[in-house]
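Fig. S4 source data, part A: sequence.
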Amino acid sequence: MSRTFETIGLTMLRWGTDCPVFLQRPPSYSVQFLQPLPQHKLPVKISIVGKAGMWLLRQANPLSYVSSSGVAIRVTLP
């Protein structure tokens, strides 16, 4: 069920911004050492749909991380 919520959240994030959204999945052997990182506000403009998608990603997977370089958004989903 959480994979479904991750997919919906990622889709909502892509709909909510004009920036490209890239998905990264770390190797399975490194996931066991990951700790949740505090989320920060993104400097790019994201609509309410995108923010809801980020919230849904975070609820489905506490280890997920969303960051921005200003021109693109990177989502890490272990």
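Fig. S4 source data, part B ends here. The beta strands are 21-24, 65-68, 73-76.
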